[in-house]
Amino acid sequence: MKAINAIRMGGVDVLPLVEGGKGVAVSNGATAGAWAAAGGVGTFSAVNANAYDAEGRTIRQVYRGKTRLARHEELVEYGIKGGIAQAIEARERGGPKARIHANILWEMGGAERVIRGVLDGARGLVNGITCGAGMPYRLADIAREYGVHYYPIVSSGRAFSALWKRSYSKARELLGGVVYEDPWLAGGHNGLSNSEDPRRPESPFPRVLALREQMRAFGLGDTPIIMAGGVWWLEEWQDWIDSPELGPIAFQFGTRPLLTQESPISEAWKKRLISLQPGDVSLQNFSPTGFYSSAVRNEFLHELEGRSERQIAYSSEAVGDHTSQYLIGPRRRAVWVTPHDSYRAQAWEKVGFTDVLRTPDNTLIFVTPAEAAEILADQVACMGCLTHCRFSNWTQNGPDYTTGKKADPRSFCIQKTLQDIAHDGSLDRNLMFAGHNAYRFTSDPFYSNGFVPTVQQLVERILTGR
What we know:
Layout: E1 7-9, E2 12-14, E3 17-19, H1 29-37, E4 41-45, H2 68-94, E5 99-105, H3 111-121, E6 128-132, H4 139-146, E7 149-154, H5 157-166, E8 178-181, E9 188-190, H6 204-217, E10 225-228, E11 249-253, H7 267-275, E12 281-284, E13 292-296, H8 299-309, E14 311-313, E15 324-328, E16 333-337, H9 339-350, E17 355-358, E18 363-367, H10 369-380, H11 414-422, H12 440-443, H13 455-464
Parallel strand pairs: 3-11, 4-5, 5-6, 6-7, 7-8, 8-10, 10-11
Antiparallel strand pairs: 1-2, 9-13, 12-13, 14-18, 15-16, 17-18
Helix pairs in contact: 1-2, 2-3, 5-6
Protein backbone atom coordinates (compact mmCIF):
# COMPACT_ATOMS: atom_id res chain seq x y z
CA MET A 1 0.00 0.00 0.00
CA LYS A 2 1.18 3.53 -0.71
CA ALA A 3 2.33 5.59 2.22
CA ILE A 4 -0.42 7.80 3.61
CA ASN A 5 0.98 11.28 4.05
CA ALA A 6 -0.52 14.31 5.71
CA ILE A 7 -2.30 16.86 3.56
CA ARG A 8 -3.08 20.52 4.10
CA MET A 9 -6.69 20.97 5.15
CA GLY A 10 -8.23 23.93 6.89
CA GLY A 11 -4.86 25.60 7.25
CA VAL A 12 -3.11 22.72 9.04
CA ASP A 13 -1.51 19.39 8.18
CA VAL A 14 -3.63 16.35 9.06
CA LEU A 15 -3.87 12.73 8.06
CA PRO A 16 -6.27 12.45 5.10
CA LEU A 17 -8.69 10.44 7.24
CA VAL A 18 -11.99 12.08 8.15
CA GLU A 19 -14.67 10.70 10.43
CA GLY A 20 -18.09 10.94 8.82
CA GLY A 21 -20.73 12.72 10.86
CA LYS A 22 -23.69 10.52 11.76
CA GLY A 23 -26.71 11.92 13.56
CA VAL A 24 -28.81 11.56 15.62
CA ALA A 25 -26.47 11.09 18.64
CA VAL A 26 -24.20 8.56 16.89
CA SER A 27 -21.08 10.54 15.96
CA ASN A 28 -20.46 12.25 19.27
CA GLY A 29 -17.69 13.96 21.21
CA ALA A 30 -16.15 10.67 22.26
CA THR A 31 -15.71 9.34 18.73
CA ALA A 32 -14.71 12.72 17.26
CA GLY A 33 -12.16 13.41 19.95
CA ALA A 34 -10.62 9.96 19.66
CA TRP A 35 -10.43 10.15 15.84
CA ALA A 36 -8.80 13.60 15.97
CA ALA A 37 -6.36 12.46 18.67
CA ALA A 38 -5.27 9.70 16.27
CA GLY A 39 -4.24 12.35 13.75
CA GLY A 40 -7.28 12.61 11.50
CA VAL A 41 -10.27 14.94 11.49
CA GLY A 42 -12.92 14.09 14.05
CA THR A 43 -16.55 14.94 13.36
CA PHE A 44 -19.40 15.08 15.84
CA SER A 45 -22.99 15.36 14.73
CA ALA A 46 -24.77 18.55 15.74
CA VAL A 47 -28.08 17.05 14.62
CA ASN A 48 -30.11 16.74 17.82
CA ALA A 49 -27.01 15.81 19.79
CA ASN A 50 -27.19 14.56 23.37
CA ALA A 51 -26.78 16.90 26.32
CA TYR A 52 -26.09 15.69 29.86
CA ASP A 53 -27.31 16.48 33.36
CA ALA A 54 -25.10 17.27 36.36
CA GLU A 55 -24.50 13.54 36.94
CA GLY A 56 -23.45 12.96 33.34
CA ARG A 57 -26.65 11.19 32.33
CA THR A 58 -28.13 11.73 28.88
CA ILE A 59 -31.05 14.15 28.86
CA ARG A 60 -33.76 12.51 26.76
CA GLN A 61 -35.44 14.88 24.35
CA VAL A 62 -39.02 14.93 25.59
CA TYR A 63 -41.33 17.48 23.99
CA ARG A 64 -44.02 19.16 26.06
CA GLY A 65 -45.13 22.02 23.82
CA LYS A 66 -48.81 22.08 22.84
CA THR A 67 -48.11 23.23 19.27
CA ARG A 68 -45.64 22.21 16.58
CA LEU A 69 -44.00 25.62 16.75
CA ALA A 70 -43.57 25.36 20.52
CA ARG A 71 -42.04 21.90 20.15
CA HIS A 72 -39.80 23.20 17.36
CA GLU A 73 -38.42 25.79 19.78
CA GLU A 74 -37.72 23.01 22.27
CA LEU A 75 -35.94 21.05 19.54
CA VAL A 76 -33.67 24.00 18.72
CA GLU A 77 -32.84 24.46 22.40
CA TYR A 78 -32.05 20.75 22.79
CA GLY A 79 -29.89 20.89 19.66
CA ILE A 80 -27.81 23.84 20.84
CA LYS A 81 -27.19 22.40 24.31
CA GLY A 82 -26.34 19.00 22.89
CA GLY A 83 -23.99 20.39 20.26
CA ILE A 84 -22.10 22.43 22.84
CA ALA A 85 -21.79 19.39 25.10
CA GLN A 86 -20.35 17.28 22.28
CA ALA A 87 -17.94 20.00 21.18
CA ILE A 88 -16.58 20.27 24.71
CA GLU A 89 -16.13 16.51 25.01
CA ALA A 90 -14.49 16.24 21.60
CA ARG A 91 -11.97 18.94 22.48
CA GLU A 92 -11.23 17.43 25.88
CA ARG A 93 -10.58 14.01 24.36
CA GLY A 94 -8.77 15.26 21.27
CA GLY A 95 -6.54 17.86 22.86
CA PRO A 96 -5.85 21.50 21.97
CA LYS A 97 -4.40 20.79 18.52
CA ALA A 98 -7.00 18.26 17.39
CA ARG A 99 -9.10 19.07 14.33
CA ILE A 100 -12.75 18.93 15.31
CA HIS A 101 -15.62 19.43 12.89
CA ALA A 102 -19.34 19.77 13.54
CA ASN A 103 -21.71 18.14 11.06
CA ILE A 104 -25.14 19.57 10.35
CA LEU A 105 -27.86 18.92 7.78
CA TRP A 106 -29.11 21.97 5.93
CA GLU A 107 -32.59 20.44 5.82
CA MET A 108 -32.53 20.04 9.60
CA GLY A 109 -35.15 22.15 11.36
CA GLY A 110 -33.55 25.32 12.70
CA ALA A 111 -30.17 24.37 11.21
CA GLU A 112 -28.77 27.91 11.15
CA ARG A 113 -29.96 28.71 14.65
CA VAL A 114 -28.55 25.46 16.02
CA ILE A 115 -25.08 25.75 14.48
CA ARG A 116 -24.81 29.42 15.43
CA GLY A 117 -25.84 28.57 18.96
CA VAL A 118 -23.27 25.77 19.13
CA LEU A 119 -20.48 27.96 17.77
CA ASP A 120 -21.43 30.75 20.19
CA GLY A 121 -21.41 28.40 23.16
CA ALA A 122 -18.29 26.48 22.13
CA ARG A 123 -16.11 29.27 20.78
CA GLY A 124 -12.65 28.13 19.80
CA LEU A 125 -13.52 24.43 20.16
CA VAL A 126 -14.79 23.75 16.63
CA ASN A 127 -12.48 24.10 13.62
CA GLY A 128 -14.88 23.39 10.78
CA ILE A 129 -18.48 22.88 9.73
CA THR A 130 -19.46 20.01 7.45
CA CYS A 131 -22.86 20.43 5.87
CA GLY A 132 -25.00 18.59 3.34
CA ALA A 133 -28.59 17.45 2.74
CA GLY A 134 -29.62 20.36 0.58
CA MET A 135 -27.92 23.39 -0.94
CA PRO A 136 -26.38 25.26 2.02
CA TYR A 137 -25.72 28.62 0.39
CA ARG A 138 -25.36 30.40 3.73
CA LEU A 139 -22.71 28.02 5.04
CA ALA A 140 -19.91 30.34 3.94
CA ASP A 141 -21.50 33.29 5.72
CA ILE A 142 -21.66 31.35 8.98
CA ALA A 143 -18.06 30.21 8.61
CA ARG A 144 -16.87 33.77 8.02
CA GLU A 145 -18.83 35.07 10.99
CA TYR A 146 -17.23 32.57 13.38
CA GLY A 147 -13.81 32.25 11.76
CA VAL A 148 -14.04 28.53 11.03
CA HIS A 149 -13.55 26.57 7.82
CA TYR A 150 -16.46 25.06 5.94
CA TYR A 151 -16.85 21.77 4.09
CA PRO A 152 -19.92 21.48 1.85
CA ILE A 153 -21.14 17.99 1.00
CA VAL A 154 -22.04 17.54 -2.68
CA SER A 155 -22.61 14.64 -5.04
CA SER A 156 -21.63 16.33 -8.29
CA GLY A 157 -19.50 19.07 -9.77
CA ARG A 158 -22.65 20.80 -10.93
CA ALA A 159 -23.94 21.14 -7.38
CA PHE A 160 -20.65 22.63 -6.20
CA SER A 161 -20.60 25.04 -9.13
CA ALA A 162 -24.00 26.40 -8.14
CA LEU A 163 -22.87 26.88 -4.53
CA TRP A 164 -19.61 28.53 -5.57
CA LYS A 165 -21.13 31.00 -7.98
CA ARG A 166 -23.92 32.05 -5.65
CA SER A 167 -22.04 32.24 -2.37
CA TYR A 168 -18.78 30.42 -1.71
CA SER A 169 -16.62 32.52 -4.03
CA LYS A 170 -17.03 35.33 -1.49
CA ALA A 171 -15.40 33.22 1.25
CA ARG A 172 -12.71 31.42 -0.75
CA GLU A 173 -10.13 31.55 2.03
CA LEU A 174 -12.31 29.56 4.46
CA LEU A 175 -13.23 26.69 2.13
CA GLY A 176 -11.33 23.89 3.84
CA GLY A 177 -12.39 21.12 1.48
CA VAL A 178 -15.28 19.69 -0.51
CA VAL A 179 -16.87 16.41 0.51
CA TYR A 180 -17.95 14.25 -2.42
CA GLU A 181 -20.62 11.93 -1.00
CA ASP A 182 -21.33 9.13 -3.45
CA PRO A 183 -25.10 8.74 -3.94
CA TRP A 184 -24.91 4.94 -4.34
CA LEU A 185 -22.31 4.04 -1.71
CA ALA A 186 -22.71 6.36 1.25
CA GLY A 187 -24.92 5.65 4.23
CA GLY A 188 -27.73 7.88 5.43
CA HIS A 189 -29.31 10.40 3.07
CA ASN A 190 -27.97 10.52 -0.46
CA GLY A 191 -27.93 13.30 -3.03
CA LEU A 192 -29.40 11.56 -6.06
CA SER A 193 -30.63 14.03 -8.65
CA ASN A 194 -33.70 13.55 -10.82
CA SER A 195 -31.45 12.62 -13.75
CA GLU A 196 -29.73 9.77 -11.87
CA ASP A 197 -31.08 6.23 -11.56
CA PRO A 198 -30.92 4.80 -8.03
CA ARG A 199 -30.70 1.32 -9.56
CA ARG A 200 -27.72 2.13 -11.80
CA PRO A 201 -24.66 3.08 -9.76
CA GLU A 202 -22.00 5.15 -11.47
CA SER A 203 -18.27 4.84 -10.82
CA PRO A 204 -17.12 7.54 -8.40
CA PHE A 205 -13.78 8.27 -10.13
CA PRO A 206 -15.13 10.13 -13.18
CA ARG A 207 -17.61 11.99 -11.01
CA VAL A 208 -14.89 13.14 -8.62
CA LEU A 209 -12.62 13.99 -11.55
CA ALA A 210 -15.41 16.18 -12.97
CA LEU A 211 -15.70 17.86 -9.57
CA ARG A 212 -11.94 18.50 -9.50
CA GLU A 213 -11.99 19.96 -13.00
CA GLN A 214 -14.80 22.28 -11.98
CA MET A 215 -12.86 23.30 -8.86
CA ARG A 216 -9.71 23.96 -10.91
CA ALA A 217 -11.75 26.29 -13.12
CA PHE A 218 -12.45 28.27 -9.95
CA GLY A 219 -8.78 28.25 -8.87
CA LEU A 220 -9.30 25.53 -6.25
CA GLY A 221 -6.86 22.93 -7.53
CA ASP A 222 -5.17 22.59 -4.11
CA THR A 223 -8.36 22.43 -2.06
CA PRO A 224 -8.86 18.84 -0.84
CA ILE A 225 -11.72 16.68 -2.01
CA ILE A 226 -12.94 14.26 0.65
CA MET A 227 -14.22 10.98 -0.82
CA ALA A 228 -17.20 9.73 1.20
CA GLY A 229 -18.99 6.43 0.63
CA GLY A 230 -17.64 2.94 0.05
CA VAL A 231 -14.23 3.53 1.64
CA TRP A 232 -12.98 0.50 3.58
CA TRP A 233 -9.35 -0.40 2.83
CA LEU A 234 -7.20 2.38 1.39
CA GLU A 235 -5.28 -0.03 -0.85
CA GLU A 236 -8.53 -0.32 -2.80
CA TRP A 237 -8.10 3.36 -3.63
CA GLN A 238 -4.45 3.28 -4.71
CA ASP A 239 -5.19 5.06 -7.98
CA TRP A 240 -6.68 7.97 -6.05
CA ILE A 241 -3.80 8.52 -3.62
CA ASP A 242 -1.27 11.08 -4.93
CA SER A 243 -3.14 11.18 -8.25
CA PRO A 244 -2.12 14.24 -10.30
CA GLU A 245 -5.52 14.08 -11.99
CA LEU A 246 -7.51 14.26 -8.77
CA GLY A 247 -5.19 16.45 -6.73
CA PRO A 248 -5.27 16.32 -2.91
CA ILE A 249 -7.69 13.65 -1.72
CA ALA A 250 -8.83 12.68 1.76
CA PHE A 251 -11.08 9.76 2.68
CA GLN A 252 -14.12 9.84 4.90
CA PHE A 253 -15.07 6.85 7.05
CA GLY A 254 -18.68 6.77 8.17
CA THR A 255 -19.59 3.13 8.68
CA ARG A 256 -16.40 1.72 10.19
CA PRO A 257 -16.32 4.06 13.24
CA LEU A 258 -19.69 2.62 14.27
CA LEU A 259 -17.91 -0.54 15.37
CA THR A 260 -15.42 0.92 17.86
CA GLN A 261 -15.22 0.92 21.62
CA GLU A 262 -15.90 4.67 21.72
CA SER A 263 -18.98 4.40 19.50
CA PRO A 264 -22.11 5.14 21.57
CA ILE A 265 -24.41 2.73 19.71
CA SER A 266 -25.74 -0.24 21.64
CA GLU A 267 -23.93 -3.56 21.93
CA ALA A 268 -26.86 -5.19 20.13
CA TRP A 269 -26.39 -2.77 17.23
CA LYS A 270 -22.67 -3.56 17.08
CA LYS A 271 -23.42 -7.30 17.01
CA ARG A 272 -25.92 -6.75 14.20
CA LEU A 273 -23.26 -5.00 12.13
CA ILE A 274 -20.97 -8.02 12.37
CA SER A 275 -23.75 -10.26 11.02
CA LEU A 276 -24.78 -8.24 7.94
CA GLN A 277 -24.63 -9.87 4.53
CA PRO A 278 -24.39 -8.42 1.00
CA GLY A 279 -27.74 -6.90 0.08
CA ASP A 280 -28.79 -6.24 3.67
CA VAL A 281 -28.40 -2.48 3.09
CA SER A 282 -30.74 -0.92 0.54
CA LEU A 283 -31.40 2.45 -1.03
CA GLN A 284 -34.99 3.55 -0.42
CA ASN A 285 -37.09 6.68 -0.81
CA PHE A 286 -39.37 6.69 2.23
CA SER A 287 -37.56 9.47 4.11
CA PRO A 288 -39.69 12.52 5.03
CA THR A 289 -36.85 14.67 3.68
CA GLY A 290 -37.61 13.59 0.13
CA PHE A 291 -34.04 12.30 -0.29
CA TYR A 292 -33.10 8.69 -0.97
CA SER A 293 -31.34 7.06 1.96
CA SER A 294 -29.37 3.88 2.67
CA ALA A 295 -30.39 1.75 5.61
CA VAL A 296 -30.36 -1.83 6.88
CA ARG A 297 -33.30 -3.89 5.72
CA ASN A 298 -35.39 -4.82 8.76
CA GLU A 299 -39.02 -4.96 9.90
CA PHE A 300 -39.22 -1.17 9.85
CA LEU A 301 -38.31 -0.96 6.16
CA HIS A 302 -40.46 -3.98 5.29
CA GLU A 303 -43.47 -2.23 6.81
CA LEU A 304 -42.79 0.93 4.80
CA GLU A 305 -42.42 -1.14 1.64
CA GLY A 306 -45.73 -2.81 2.42
CA ARG A 307 -47.53 0.50 2.76
CA SER A 308 -46.48 1.54 -0.72
CA GLU A 309 -47.20 -1.88 -2.20
CA ARG A 310 -50.73 -1.84 -0.77
CA GLN A 311 -51.56 1.28 -2.74
CA ILE A 312 -54.14 2.10 -5.38
CA ALA A 313 -55.07 5.24 -7.30
CA TYR A 314 -58.51 6.76 -6.78
CA SER A 315 -60.72 9.47 -8.22
CA SER A 316 -63.41 11.56 -6.56
CA GLU A 317 -65.78 10.72 -9.41
CA ALA A 318 -66.27 7.99 -11.96
CA VAL A 319 -63.92 8.72 -14.84
CA GLY A 320 -61.99 6.59 -17.33
CA ASP A 321 -61.17 3.18 -15.88
CA HIS A 322 -62.22 4.29 -12.39
CA THR A 323 -65.67 2.77 -12.52
CA SER A 324 -65.91 0.89 -9.21
CA GLN A 325 -67.20 2.70 -6.16
CA TYR A 326 -65.24 2.15 -2.98
CA LEU A 327 -66.29 3.34 0.49
CA ILE A 328 -63.57 4.52 2.84
CA GLY A 329 -63.24 5.94 6.34
CA PRO A 330 -65.63 5.94 9.30
CA ARG A 331 -68.14 7.97 7.28
CA ARG A 332 -67.89 5.52 4.37
CA ARG A 333 -67.28 8.21 1.80
CA ALA A 334 -67.31 7.09 -1.79
CA VAL A 335 -64.32 7.23 -4.12
CA TRP A 336 -63.82 5.57 -7.49
CA VAL A 337 -61.18 2.98 -8.35
CA THR A 338 -60.57 0.49 -11.13
CA PRO A 339 -62.33 -2.89 -10.83
CA HIS A 340 -58.95 -4.62 -10.50
CA ASP A 341 -57.90 -2.31 -7.68
CA SER A 342 -61.25 -2.80 -5.97
CA TYR A 343 -60.58 -6.53 -5.91
CA ARG A 344 -57.06 -5.97 -4.50
CA ALA A 345 -58.36 -3.62 -1.80
CA GLN A 346 -60.95 -6.15 -0.64
CA ALA A 347 -58.24 -8.81 -0.43
CA TRP A 348 -56.06 -6.57 1.75
CA GLU A 349 -58.96 -5.77 4.06
CA LYS A 350 -59.70 -9.46 4.53
CA VAL A 351 -56.21 -10.07 5.95
CA GLY A 352 -56.33 -7.16 8.41
CA PHE A 353 -55.32 -4.06 6.47
CA THR A 354 -58.65 -2.41 7.12
CA ASP A 355 -57.68 1.23 7.63
CA VAL A 356 -57.39 3.36 4.50
CA LEU A 357 -55.24 6.51 4.38
CA ARG A 358 -55.04 9.07 1.60
CA THR A 359 -51.72 10.25 0.17
CA PRO A 360 -50.85 13.56 -1.57
CA ASP A 361 -50.70 11.69 -4.89
CA ASN A 362 -54.41 10.77 -5.00
CA THR A 363 -53.74 7.23 -3.90
CA LEU A 364 -54.95 5.15 -1.00
CA ILE A 365 -52.80 2.92 1.19
CA PHE A 366 -54.10 0.07 3.34
CA VAL A 367 -52.72 -0.47 6.85
CA THR A 368 -53.72 -2.19 10.07
CA PRO A 369 -55.62 -0.20 12.71
CA ALA A 370 -52.50 -0.22 14.91
CA GLU A 371 -50.37 1.16 12.10
CA ALA A 372 -52.93 3.84 11.31
CA ALA A 373 -53.08 4.92 14.97
CA GLU A 374 -49.27 5.14 15.16
CA ILE A 375 -49.04 7.14 11.94
CA LEU A 376 -51.64 9.63 13.14
CA ALA A 377 -50.08 9.96 16.59
CA ASP A 378 -46.63 10.58 15.11
CA GLN A 379 -47.98 13.21 12.73
CA VAL A 380 -49.76 15.02 15.54
CA ALA A 381 -46.63 14.92 17.73
CA CYS A 382 -44.42 16.55 15.03
CA MET A 383 -41.69 18.73 16.54
CA GLY A 384 -40.46 20.31 13.32
CA CYS A 385 -37.14 18.48 13.05
CA LEU A 386 -36.87 19.25 9.31
CA THR A 387 -37.16 22.44 7.29
CA HIS A 388 -39.91 20.68 5.33
CA CYS A 389 -41.46 17.34 6.25
CA ARG A 390 -43.57 15.35 3.84
CA PHE A 391 -44.74 13.00 6.61
CA SER A 392 -46.37 15.70 8.77
CA ASN A 393 -46.60 18.61 6.25
CA TRP A 394 -44.59 20.84 8.63
CA THR A 395 -42.40 23.64 7.34
CA GLN A 396 -40.34 25.96 9.52
CA ASN A 397 -41.47 28.94 7.44
CA GLY A 398 -44.37 30.96 8.84
CA PRO A 399 -46.95 32.21 9.15
CA ASP A 400 -48.86 28.92 8.94
CA TYR A 401 -45.86 26.50 9.17
CA THR A 402 -47.32 24.05 6.70
CA THR A 403 -46.17 22.86 3.30
CA GLY A 404 -49.71 23.24 2.03
CA LYS A 405 -49.71 19.58 1.00
CA LYS A 406 -51.48 16.60 2.48
CA ALA A 407 -49.32 14.73 5.00
CA ASP A 408 -47.89 11.56 3.45
CA PRO A 409 -48.56 8.37 5.46
CA ARG A 410 -46.11 6.40 3.30
CA SER A 411 -43.26 8.12 5.16
CA PHE A 412 -42.42 8.22 8.89
CA CYS A 413 -41.26 10.42 11.79
CA ILE A 414 -37.50 10.39 11.35
CA GLN A 415 -36.75 12.16 14.63
CA LYS A 416 -38.69 9.59 16.64
CA THR A 417 -37.04 6.54 15.10
CA LEU A 418 -33.46 7.89 15.11
CA GLN A 419 -33.74 9.00 18.72
CA ASP A 420 -35.10 5.60 19.70
CA ILE A 421 -32.45 3.49 17.99
CA ALA A 422 -29.67 5.76 19.25
CA HIS A 423 -30.85 5.21 22.82
CA ASP A 424 -31.07 1.41 22.86
CA GLY A 425 -34.39 1.11 21.06
CA SER A 426 -35.41 -1.83 18.88
CA LEU A 427 -33.12 -2.67 15.98
CA ASP A 428 -36.01 -4.19 14.03
CA ARG A 429 -38.62 -1.50 14.60
CA ASN A 430 -36.44 1.54 13.82
CA LEU A 431 -34.46 3.01 10.95
CA MET A 432 -30.85 1.81 11.00
CA PHE A 433 -28.68 3.86 8.64
CA ALA A 434 -25.58 2.19 7.18
CA GLY A 435 -23.29 2.43 4.18
CA HIS A 436 -23.47 -0.23 1.49
CA ASN A 437 -20.13 -1.69 2.61
CA ALA A 438 -21.41 -2.54 6.08
CA TYR A 439 -21.59 -6.24 5.16
CA ARG A 440 -17.78 -6.25 5.10
CA PHE A 441 -17.63 -6.33 8.90
CA THR A 442 -18.59 -10.01 8.58
CA SER A 443 -15.74 -10.99 6.25
CA ASP A 444 -13.00 -8.62 7.42
CA PRO A 445 -10.48 -10.59 9.53
CA PHE A 446 -9.81 -7.46 11.59
CA TYR A 447 -13.12 -8.14 13.36
CA SER A 448 -12.58 -11.87 13.86
CA ASN A 449 -14.01 -13.41 17.02
CA GLY A 450 -16.11 -10.33 17.66
CA PHE A 451 -13.15 -7.98 18.04
CA VAL A 452 -14.20 -4.36 18.53
CA PRO A 453 -11.24 -1.96 18.18
CA THR A 454 -10.65 1.39 19.77
CA VAL A 455 -10.68 4.34 17.39
CA GLN A 456 -6.89 4.49 17.70
CA GLN A 457 -6.58 0.84 16.70
CA LEU A 458 -8.92 1.37 13.75
CA VAL A 459 -6.96 4.35 12.46
CA GLU A 460 -3.68 2.47 12.82
CA ARG A 461 -5.16 -0.47 10.89
CA ILE A 462 -6.37 1.84 8.11
CA LEU A 463 -2.90 3.37 7.83
CA THR A 464 -1.04 0.05 7.74
CA GLY A 465 -3.53 -1.75 5.46
CA ARG A 466 -4.83 -5.27 5.69
